[in-house]
Amino acid sequence: MLDSADLKAILETASAAVAASPRPGSPCSASRLAAVLLVVLLAGATTSCGPVVDVVRDLYCVVTFSQCGDDSGESQPHAECISYRNGQSVGTKLCGPLWDSDNDTISTATEMNPTNRIGNYPIAGFYVFDTLRWDINQSRAQLGPSDGYLDFGMNLRDAGDGYAHYLGNDQVDTDDWGTGHLLRLIEGSGRSWADSISTRGYPHMMTGDMSLRTGGSFYPHASHRNGLDVDVRYIRKDRSETLGLNICTDGAQYDTTATLGLFNTIVVLNGDGRNGMPWVEYIFVDTACVGIVAHPDDPYIRYEDGHQDHFHVRIRDPDGP
Amino acid sequence: MAHSPPVHTQTTSCGDFGAVRFAILLFGLLAAPLLNAAAQDTIPLLVRAEDHPGPRQSLGVVRRDARLAVEKEIYRSSGIISGDVSVSPDGRFISLVEVVQQSGRPQTQLVVLDTSGRIARTITNRVFSKHVWSGPNRIAFIVGRPGEGGDAFRPESVSIVDVVTGAEQRLEGISRPYQLHWASFDSSLYLNVFPPQGARGRDAAPRVYRYDIQRGALSVTSHRGVFFSPDGLYYFDPSVEGSAFRLYRASDDQDVTARLQLPAERVRWGPEFGWMPGAGHVLLFVDRPAQPERQPGQPRQPARLMDRNAPRVNPDRWNLAVDAETGAIIERFEGDLGAGWKTNAPVLPIERRGGTELYRLKRR
C-alpha cells in the first residue's frame, strides 16, 4: 500500500507530467512512469500522458534497471527524479546510472564535491546540489574561449574513475573549473579510459588546466577562459602519472599508441555530441611531434604552438552559436 | 669575404704627395671595417635544418648556394635540433634551438652559428621560447620558468642578447609576454603581453608594447597585434587556440579582416605563412579545398598513427598571395613554403618538384 506521503508525491508528479508536454524523442523517466501508471490505473485516462512509446520505454527501464535518463536536457529538467517500488522510494537506484544517481547529467561526484557548494571554505561554489533530485545545470560559457568568462562553473573532482587532475603551479581547486558539459566529457572519458587502465596497464588520464572559477584571463593560456577547455598530458612509456613529458624533446618516453587510444576515447566514445553529449571541436597539439593525424573527414586535430607537453581539448559551447 | 674600399688617388706636382697618399691609405684602413659591415648587410644566406631522426627534429644544418644549387652541411649537432633555424637580418648568423643530454636529462639551449657553421654563442641555463632576430647581432627571446612536472612554459620577461659581445639585457616593465615580432620598418621589437589573471571584458585584452631597440625605450601601444607587414602599414593578430584571425590597419587599428576575399573558414584560421617577404603587405595562405564542418551528432572518425614514411615536403601544394589593401588574391603559385628553408633575403624560399627556388611575386 502506498502511504499518504508517497501518494501525494505521486499525484504531484503525475499532475506535472500530465501538464508538461513531452518533448519528441525524449527518453523515459521513472517519474513519468509513475505518473502515467497512476493516471492509467486511477483515472483510466491514457490520452494526455504522452506517446505510448514513452510508457513502454519507462517500463523497460524499470524492469531492466537500465539507464533511462534524459541525456539531452541538462538544463531542461522534466520533473523531479524520484522513483518508487512497492510503495517505497528507491530514488537513486532506478533513476540513473551508477555515476549519476539522479540522472540529471551532473555526476554524483560533482554534486558531492564540496567545492561546488555555496559557502564552502576556502573556495565556494555556486550550487546546492541534491543527489536525489534533478539539479539544473546553470553553468554557462560566456563569449569565446579566448575572450570570455564562465558563469556558475562547476569544479572537477580532483580524481575520479580513470582520470586524475594535476595541479602544475596552481593551487588546489583554482584551475579546474568548467561548464557541466566539460566535466561530463572528462568524467565520461575517464570511465571509458578505465578499461584501458585495467586491461593494458595504462596510466590514468591526467587532466590539467581548465578555467578559473569565474573564467577570464588565465595565465599562461591564450584561451581557457570560459569553461570549454581542458589540457591533458601525453602518455609516457614509463606510465608515470607524476612526471610531465615534452614529446618533442623527450620523444623516447612518448607512447604514441596509448595517446592515440586516449584521443579516440575522448573524441569517438565521448565527444560526438550525440544525445546532448559534449562535442569535441578541436584537439590542439604539436602536430609535427605528436605522430597522430586526424581522419581527413573529421579534421579536429590542429597545430598550435606551445602544445609539446600537453594536448588541449576544446568542446563546443552547447548554448553557443 | 673582405671588400676593399674604393680608393681614389690623384697625382700632384706638389711636394706633399707622400702625405696625401698616407692620408688616403689611413682612410682606407679605418674605413674598411665599416664598409665591409655595410656590404655584409645584404649577404643572402639560405639554410635549413636537415637529416631528420624524428618529427620536427634534425641533426645538422645545411647551407645552400642558390646560384650554384649546391648544398653543404655546415653544422652537426651533438644532440638534436628542435624546429627550424632562423637567419639574422644581415645574414651573418644562424640561430637554432638544440636539445642535448645533460646528466641523462634533456636540456634546451639556443645556439648561434656564423655562416661557416662555427658556434658564435651558446645561450644556456635559461628556460626560454620564441627567439627572434632583432636587428644585426641581437637576438631576443622570451624567458620564463617551467610549470611543475615540466608542463606549461610560463613566460616572465624578454631578454635581448648581443651575440657578438654576449651582453644581455632584460626588458624592465613588462611581464608575461607571449608573442614577439621584429619590425624592421621601424627597428622595433613588438611584444604581446598577457592581461592580468582573471581579467574580464576590456581589461582582458592583451597589451601590445613597442621596444625601440636603438633608444632603448619601451612604450605601450594601441595596437591589437604584433605581426606587422614589411612596410608597417598592416598587422595581424593570428588565430590562437581557435580564436579568429584578425587583420588590422596600423594607422588607426581598424579591423579590416572582412575585406579579405577568401572563404570564411580560411580567413578564420589566417595565413599559415604570414607576410610575403619584400612585398609591402601581402599575406600568404595555403590554397585548400573547403571542407564541410562536421556537426554534433554525426559519428566521429577515429584518428590514426602518422605514417612516418610519408613525404615531409609537398611540392604540389598551391598557395595564395592576398593583398591586405584590397583583400584580393593577386597571385596563385605552386610549391611548399614549409620545407624549412630560411633566408634573410627579401624573397620566399619554396620547394618545388624542380628543387628549391627563391620566389618573388610577379605583381609587386
Describe this structure in words.
The complex is a heterodimer of chains A (321) and B (364). Chain A is of the alpha+beta class. Chain A has helices at residues 4-19, 30-43, 52-64, 92-95, 108-112, 180-200, 256-269, 287-290; strands at 84-85, 88-89, 140-142, 149-151, 154-155, 159-160, 163-165, 177-178, 205-207, 229-232, 280-285, 292-293, 301-303, 311-315. Chain A has 2 domains: 4-95, no CATH class; 141-315, Muramoyl-pentapeptide Carboxypeptidase, domain 2. In chain A, 28% of the residues lie in helices and 13% in strands. A 4-stranded mixed sheet of chain A has the order 10-14-11-13. In chain A, strands 6-7-9 form a 3-stranded mixed sheet. The N and C termini of chain A lie far apart (51 Å). By secondary structure, chain B is mainly beta. Chain B has a domain at 258-291 and 310-364. Chain B has a 7-stranded antiparallel sheet with strand order 6-5-4-3-2-1-23, with no helix packed on it. The relative contact order of chain B is 0.09.
Order of helices and strands of chain A: HHHEEHHEEEEEEHEEHEHEEE
- Please report the first level of CATH classification, the CATH class of the largest domain in chain A: Alpha Beta
Spatial order of strands in the largest sheet of chain A? 10-14-11-13
Main beta-sheet strand count, sense and barrel state of chain B: 7 strands, antiparallel
Structure characteristics:
heterodimer; A: 321 residues; alpha+beta; Muramoyl-pentapeptide Carboxypeptidase, domain 2; 2 domains; three-stranded mixed sheet; disordered N terminus; B: 364 residues; mainly beta; four-stranded antiparallel sheet; 2 helices; globular
